[in-house]
Every structure is written in C-alpha cells, then in structure tokens.
Design brief:
about 45% helix; ten-stranded mixed beta sheet; elongated; alpha/beta
Length: about 675
C-alpha cells in the first residue's frame, strides 16, 4: 500500500479470500485500497491485513462475506472489537440474506470479475458508493471505566495514606472525564463506588461511539481509563450512510404509532413505535430513511392519518381487500423481531405491500440499465403510472444532437415518426414536470433543514434540562444524606449530654466538700468497677474514670490474680476492695492483707450501676470494712500463735541437738 492523495473523503479497503481458509490454514487475502481515484492492489496475510487496517484506518473494510474474515461469531466479534474507532466492516451483498456479488455489482454498474482481486475491487467500489450493510456487534453506547491503576497494597505503616492518594486520584480523574463529556454535550450516566479518600472506580455509559467521545484509553500511575463500546446481544446489520433510497412504508396509527420501512427487495430496514411523536415527527423519521414509493396500512379503508402521510409524499397507497387477520400478520413477520403488536402490524403492512408489487418490481428491474437508478424508475411507474419506457426516456441523459443536417421537402409523416413526435412532446412535458418537482424538492429540503435545526435546538435544550434535573436530583440526595448525618449527630449529642449529667452527679458524690449535693444523695459513695482482676483491666479502668486513694473498687471477676497484679492494685490504696464472681487467689489475698487493704464480698452491699460507674451506700461499705477488720484481727492473732508455736518447736529441736552432741563427746576414748 502506497501513500496517495485521496479523491474521496475516506479510504475504502476491499477484501476477498485469495487462498486458504480462515478456519484452517493461514489464509491470504486479495486487498484493494480505493480512494475514489487511485487503486492499490496487494495480496496479504491475515496478520498483515490487520496491521494495514490499524495503520491506514480506512472508513470501510468491505467484503462479500464477513465470515471470510472470521471463523465464527465469537471470532467476528473479536475482529470488530479490534477495528480502529473510525473503521467499519461492510458486507456489500446484503444483510442476513446476502445476494451474489455479481448481481449487486451489475445492479449498481460496478465492474466485476470472478478473480479474487476483481471481487475485492468490486466490494471496495460498492462500499465507496454507500452500497451494503455495516456489520455491528456493538451498540452506539460506549462504556468508560475509571479505576485504580495499581493495587492498594497489603499493609504497612503508610497504607492508609497510600490508599487515600490512589482513591483521590481516581475521583479527580472521574471529574475530569465528566467535565470533558459535559463540554462535548454528550448524554451519559455515571455510577461511582465511594471508598476511603475518594472513588475506587467510576463507570460512565455514554450515548455515542468512541470516535465521538473526547476520552481515550490511558494508564498513568494511580489511574487507568478504559473505553469500550457496549456489546449487542448478537450481530446486527445497518445500512450504510442514511441514503434516501426509494422504500415501502407500513404505518399502524393510534395511541401508539408504529412505522416500518422496507426496501424494494423486501428487506426490512427499520421500525419505530412511539406514543409521543406527532404526524410531523413521523414524517421526518420516514424522510431520514428514504423516499416512499408505496405507503401501506393493514386495514381497509386507509386510516385518515396514513392517508395524510401518503399525500405528503405523493406516494402510491396500498390497503388489503379486508383487514389483515392477526395469524397472517404473525406468519408474515415471523422472521423479524418486534417489541409490540403495533410494530408487527406496521411491518406486516409494508411486507404485504411488497408481496403485492413484487412481480411489478422484478419486471421493472429487468428493463432498467445497470447505471440507472432503479428506485427512481420504480417510483415513476408505481406512483406516476408511467410505463417503464416512458420513465426511462424521462430519466435518460442521452441528449446528443444529430450532427447531420439534411434538407428535405415537406412530406407526410409516417406512423412511426408521428409516434416519435408524440413521445418527444411527452418527454418535454415530463422534463418540465421534473423541474417543477425538483423545485418542490428544494423547497421541502429547505423546510426540512429548518425543521432539523429547530429539532437540534430542541434536543440541545432537552439535554440541558436533563442535566439540570440530574444535578437537582444529586443535590437533593446529598441534602438528604447531610440531614440524616445531622439527625444522627443530634441524637448522639443528646445521648452524651445525658451521660455527662450522670457523670457530673457521680463526680459530685466523689467530692463531698461540694455544697450543692442533695440530702438524699449524701449517704451514697461512688464505686469504680473493674471487669477482671488483671493488670490490663486495672489500667483500662484507670484510663476511663481514674483510680485514686480511698476509692471503693469493685472486682467483677476477682479470680486468677497473681502477686504483681495484687501489688498493682495495692499501689492505688483503695478504701476497700469488693469481690464479685470467683475467689481471690491465696497470693492476691495475702498481698492485700499485708498492705492492709480491706476486702469483702460484693454481695454484702447494694450496688447501683450507672453506665460505666456505680454507687452504693456508705454505711454498707463501712460495715464491710468493720467485718474485715475483725477478720484481720483474728488472722493476726492466728499468725502470732503460729509464729510462737514455730519458735517453741525450733527451740526444742535445738536443745535435742545440743544434748545429743554432749553424749557423743563423753563416750569417745
């Protein structure tokens, strides 16, 4: 492929299988590059073909059979996904039911030969002339995904800061993409996942093809942006550029209006059902898809709305002899998909109209030369009631004058000459009528342009209103969220204020020199609960409400403490230690006794708990202390008695030892 100056706005690749098979051995392809003026030919491998498509980015890759480029449906979808954004795959022989390439080429006056290179050239020329169907596996909706470009890690002292930075970068990039889409005036929906510090990902669904969107695939540091068209459920075919070919139109009017458009070969091109469009909008929709030759209804007589649309196009009308039965409409439309009964009825009307005119269309096609517009001739014959010959004469461009000037005497004209003069006169009248129709077309096209401008302005205003409504909805949601947060904080404040009031009362109980302590609370004393008799539990209680000398300490679980734990509690010098579940270990009991810390069972006092603190009657605490002192006195006496017994026993043992030593020394020689 050589560099060249293009005569077309676009470059077209025509492709045909040269040798091999895409399902087996590596195939080779005949490739023709056509720009409207220059033609380059080459034989390439499948891989080289892909490289050339990526490098040259042609508007169309044209073929007579799409499965010459891919082995199956999945491979075809992969092939379509890998095409450049501006490149489309075109099957020039038709949609689901392709015709022979030779027939299509002959109909459009394109040179054709059976060699692969000739077929590739024919495909390129046909596609350049907007003949064929785009093969599509993707919708006109594009998904843009903004996500993290790297993992947030598995831990470490700086993991939170690192994660926050990545999520913040994703959120910043999301806002940049959103701004670019807004600036381009594109409709989109956004779904973002909020995470610590920003977004973990955001997905945009944009109405448009990737080439229409000012965002591309990229990956930089913390953020990755992926742009991909949304996949269809299957493979679909769309006619190239919205050409205004001659078509048959079926209409089902009513609360829901449905319109179906078929070409002169009976192929269904498009279908519409709407509850909101008026007659003018329906007419505009039809105009965008072709020039109606026949407008049909599925009932008799023709509804007034359908008749109005028919008159606006000056098209031939078609109705059945009687209303079409539902089962016949279902049978005729069985090969096509439709969303509702209205679309089915419109499709049936168009297809039955084609069936009724099919023989006539075939006869016309047989008589129309290759380079003449078959649709225009058909329209003149069907709607204008002209003969094929008359229509061909009216459309002929052969205006070559007679070079020979001959002198002749007046003579009577023959019947053939009279017929020729009549035909010439008729041609002049038809040409004048054509000029009038052209003027009418120009006027209507001007009106259409004005209406399109008004429609675009209305659509732009509607998009603006949609964006404003979305923004209002977003702000309302944000306001609701903030109000919920405010209510939650108010509830929390009320809860904490109540707790603070209770803590103040307890604090006053612990400071008896305050004069504002009420009489009914004067006999109470605060209790500091400790969940377990462990160092950690003692430290936790100290952190929460403080342990000080003279406190009443309540051990909920007093079991299991060792010497160091008991010594830690003794350092506090509590007024008394109340024991709950379990019993003090001997070591802990001895340490507290040695430090003269009173110990008593919690069951002997009445404890009222308030949140984390508690209170009890001071008189009951004093009773527990008195009981302990009595037990302690008895314990001291027992210890003294045990010490005295031990001293006496040791003394006796010493005397026995001394007596035994004396006897042993007297017996020695």
């Amino acid at each position: 492929m050589n560099a060249r100056t293009s005569a077309l706005d676009t470059l077209v690749f025509g492709v045909d299988i040269q040798s091999g098979d895409v399902r087996g051995d590596a195939p080779s392809y005949a490739l023709v590059a056509f720009d409207g003026e220059n033609i380059d030919r080459d034989v390439v491998s499948h891989r080289k073909l892909r490289r050339l498509v990526d490098r040259e980015e042609p508007a169309f890759v044209a073929t007579d059979n799409m499965y010459e480029l891919a082995a199956d449906k999945d491979a075809l979808v992969h092939f379509l996904r890998e095409l450049p954004d501006g490149t489309r795959l075109v099957q020039v022989t038709g949609a689901e039911r392709p015709e022979p390439l030779s027939r299509v080429a002959s109909r459009h006056g394109v040179p054709y030969g059976k060699e692969p290179m000739k077929e590739a050239e024919a495909a390129a020329r046909l596609a350049a002339g907007n003949v064929g169907y785009e093969v599509s596996a993707f919708t006109n909706t594009t998904e843009i995904k903004v996500s993290r470009g790297r993992s947030t890690g598995k831990g470490g002292w700086s993991e939170d800061r690192y994660t926050r930075r990545i999520h913040g970068s994703v959120k910043t990039k999301t806002r940049e993409v959103e701004s670019e889409l807004d600036a381009a005036g594109l409709d989109y929906e956004r779904d973002a996942t909020e995470k610590y510090g920003g977004f973990s990902n955001a997905v945009f669904e944009v109405e448009g093809r990737p080439e229409e969107i000012p965002v591309s695939n990229q990956r930089s540091g913390d953020v990755r942006v992926e742009v991909e068209r949304v996949r269809r459920d299957g493979i679909e075919f769309e006619p190239l550029a919205k050409r205004r070919d001659h078509v048959l139109v079926g209409i089902d009017p009513g609360t829901t209006t449905a319109v179906a458009v078929a070409d002169l070969d009976g192929n269904l091109l498009d279908v519409l059902s709407t509850r909101t469009a008026d007659t003018a909008e329906v007419i505009e929709w039809i105009i965008e898809r072709g020039r109606p030759v026949v407008i049909a209804a599925d009932v008799e007589p023709m509804p007034e709305t359908v008749e109005k649309i028919r008159r606006s196009f000056d098209a031939e009308g078609w109705i059945p002899n009687s209303d079409l039965p539902v089962d016949e409409k279902q049978h005729r439309t069985r090969e096509f998909d439709y969303d509702n009964d209205h679309e089915r009825d419109a499709m049936a009307a168009a297809l039955y109209a084609f069936d009724d005119h099919e023989d006539q269309f075939d006869r016309i096609a047989e008589k129309v030369p290759p380079r003449m517009d078959r649709g225009e001739v058909t329209a003149r014959v069907v709607a204008g009631e002209d003969s094929v010959e008359t229509a061909l004469a009216a459309l002929s461009d052969d205006d070559e004058p007679d070079d020979e000037e001959t002198e002749h005497t007046e003579r009577e004209l023959t019947d053939d000459e009279k017929r020729i003069k009549q035909l010439e006169s008729q041609v002049e009248r038809l040409e004048a009528h054509v000029e009038e129709l052209n003027d009418t077309i120009e006027s209507k096209e001007g009106r259409i342009g004005q209406l399109k401008g008004d429609l675009e302005a209305a659509r732009s205003e509607e998009r603006k209103e949609v964006r404003e409504r979305r923004e209002v909805s977003r702000l309302e949601r944000e306001n609701s969220r903030l109000e919920r947060q405010l209510d939650e904080r108010d509830d929390r404040i009320d809860e904490l204020e109540g707790k603070l009031a209770r803590l103040k009362e307890l604090w006053k109980l612990d400071h008896s020199n305050f004069s504002d302590v009420s009489e009914k609370k004067a006999g109470l004393t605060p209790v500091k609960p400790v969940s377990k008799f462990t160092k950690d539990a003692i430290a936790d209680a100290h952190d929460r409400f403080g342990l000080a000398t003279g406190d009443v300490v309540y051990l909920r679980d007093s079991s299991g403490a060792g010497r160091s734990t008991a010594e830690r509690l003794a350092e506090v010098e509590p007024k008394v230690v109340l024991t709950g579940e379990g019993g003090l270990s001997d070591v802990a009991d001895r340490v507290l006794f040695e430090n003269e810390i009173p110990v008593g069972p919690a069951d002997d006092v009445t404890i009222q708990e308030v949140d984390e603190l508690a209170v009890t009657r001071e008189s009951e605490v004093e009773t527990v202390i008195e009981d302990w002192e009595e037990r302690a006195e008895d314990r001291r006496k027992e210890q003294k008695a045990e010490q005295l017994d031990r001293l006496i026993s040791e003394h006796r043992a010493d005397r026995k030892y001394d007596a035994g030593s004396s006897e042993a020394s007297g017996q020695s020689p």
